[in-house]
Write a structure and sequence with these properties.
Helices cover 19% and strands 23% of the residues. By secondary structure, it is of the alpha+beta class. It has two domains: 3-55; 58-126, no CATH class. A hairpin with a 2-residue loop joins strand 6 and strand 7 (73-75). The mean pLDDT is 88.
Length: 132
């Protein structure tokens, strides 16, 4: 999955970005235009050219077997999704997952597009002051 598609699917799930700003810390992606990304930060509208330095904040797939917190709820994603079938867990391979599983992982901000490895996203575990 490429970055543009991942961001488009993530629109409905409140994906946060690290835009390297002390004033607008971790705004939410709200729109994608041809050359611009649109954000909301506590009611303030922001728009940046798509090539700006900001990156989405995502969970690495290695966190799928760990307890996470999302919207105030704590759970283990692999247990919640009942990922016990070997084909779904081998190598944490998104190609083997159902559409339902993929949507839930995107909703919980997991990096199923491998953007962290490509340096196109920020690992949430590396931000000491960030909470989903």
């Amino acid at each position: 999955m490429d970055k543009q598609l991942f961001l488009a699917i993530s629109l409905r799930f409140g994906l946060k970005f690290d835009i390297k700003s002390d004033l607008y810390q971790y705004p939410t992606l709200t729109g994608i235009r041809r050359d611009y990304l649109e954000f909301n930060y506590h009611g303030t509208y922001l728009s940046f050219h798509k090539d700006f330095i900001g990156k989405p904040i995502l969970r690495p797939l290695s966190d799928i077997k760990k307890e996470i917190e999302h919207n105030g709820e704590k759970f283990i994603p692999s247990v919640t999704l009942r990922l016990s079938h070997p084909a779904e867990m081998v190598g944490l391979n998104p190609a083997a997952w159902s559409f339902r599983v993929i949507l839930k992982l995107i909703e919980w901000h997991f990096d199923i597009a491998e953007l962290i490895v490509k340096d196109e996203a920020v690992n949430c575990n590396e931000l000491s002051d960030f909470v989903f």
